Amino acid sequence: MTLSTSAWLAAAVSALSLTVQAAPSVYPTGVTLYDPARAYNQYVIFSGADKQTHLIDMNGNEVKRWPYKGFPSAIIDPQRVGGERGRVFLQLSEKAPGKLGSAGNGLSNQSVGELDWNGQVVWQWGDKAPGGAAQQHHDLRRLSNGNTLVLANQVHKVAGFKVPEVIDDVIYEVSPSGEVKWKWLASEHLKEFGFSTEQLKLVHASENPDYLHLNNLSPVGPNKWFDAGDKRFHPDNLLVDSRNANFIAIIDKTSGKVVWRLGPNLPVINPRTAQQVPRPVDQFVGQHDAHIIPAGLPGAGNLLVFDNQGSAGYPSVPLGLISGSRILEIDPVTRQVVWQYTAASSRQPGWAFYSSFISSARRLPNGNTLIDEGMNGRFFQVTHQGEIVWEYVSPYTGKAPSGDAVSNWVYRALPVDYDWVPAGTPRTEEAVNLSAGTVKTVGNNH
């Protein structure tokens, strides 16, 4: 029996339709490379494009899932919650975002909360927030005093701006009972961010109401600079970075003033010296996840940042100066790049590592660095020398940040020590090298 031409064409179109709808297609997902002897063995937590929060082991096995997304999903130090393991910050509910809402801001975020290992809500904040909604974005942090830092949005009119209302970045310190104990508003500090007179005119004239788009908030934390007498680095001070304006800043927690800043105007990258370290810091663009490396980790006290090399600035920094993204470790006092990772560090072409938006990088106890190449949903560990010793591609897909495209994008991926989870949580450590076609059991099975 043979198919008619029309029937054959119909079958072919149907098969092609199924192929087009499948995503991802030709790319492997899960763990593609893992050297247990050289990687730092841990869990990783992230919110996938499926709007679920996943905790995976080194072989990519999901050991825990919370049915909520996080912007980001953030673990809570057990010491901050009476020794309880497995506590996370996530988004609990949404609201109508209004005409200015987008995937990159918090205007659809009604409430955020703290969940225990079993998914029970033990604390939440939203109804008591100014305006009746948390509108949190990009960061949540539990403090040692039991309060919670919330990076949020406030939509309001600001004199001098072209747009009728701006999406202002606001920081709240919230008590366990939900009361705002401290507040900082970005628009009140415009002249402290390093803009020239001409740049301030461009900021005020911007068509984008999200004029700064702060995408990180973290306490500076204990560090050697403060111990040596530099009060700018007081552990309680707060570090933020502006994705749209290309600056990183430290806010004095007492006065609210900016006391340290890097950017927005830095020397243009010289391709001939772009791989040399140490060197004076050069222009980062659209950066994410800037933070001071915590005490006790290699590089402690230095600034670590994912330099997207996307599109940002007043005026926008020209693209194409380098072909990919970078991880920069910067001495914040001398303003020297003391370590970096680019694709060239792994003997790959520059375009092999690139994420124009989102993404993160965290230092690990053995000196490796965990990197989230966010727009591709790819996490990997590199050694200090740049060798990739673990790699994972998220299999969790969903709607991309804009449009109807399907993607496995991941905003931020965070390392999680084995002792953060309750005792008895399973894990495996089996060597993987897909390029060699090998999977070998070499580690502990719990």
The SS-based structural class is mainly beta
**Strand portion:** 25-35%
Q: How many domains in all?
A: 3
Quaternary organisation of the protein chains: single chain
The span between the termini is: 56 Å
Q: Looking across the biggest beta sheet, what order are the strands in?
A: 22-23-24-25-1-29-30
Could you give the count of β-strands? 30
Sketch the major β-sheet.
7 strands, antiparallel
What does this structure look like?
By secondary structure, the chain is mostly beta strands. The chain has 3 domains: 27-61 and 362-446, no CATH class; 73-208, no CATH class; 213-357, no CATH class. It contains 3 helices and 30 strands. The chain has helices spanning 5-21, 197-205, 224-227; strands at residues 30-34, 43-47, 53-56, 62-66, 74-75, 88-94, 109-115, 121-125, 136-142, 148-156, 166-174, 180-185, 214-219, 238-242, 247-251, 258-262, 279-280, 288-292, 303-307, 326-331, 336-341, 360-363, 369-373, 378-382, 388-393, 398-399, 406-407, 413-416, 430-433, 438-441. The strands form 7 sheets. It has a 7-stranded antiparallel sheet, with no helix packed on it. Strands 17-21-20-19-18 form a 5-stranded antiparallel sheet, with no helix packed on it. A 4-stranded antiparallel sheet has the order 4-3-2-28, with no helix packed on it. The longest helix is centred in the first third of the chain and has 17 residues, at 5-21. The chain is globular and about 60 Å long.
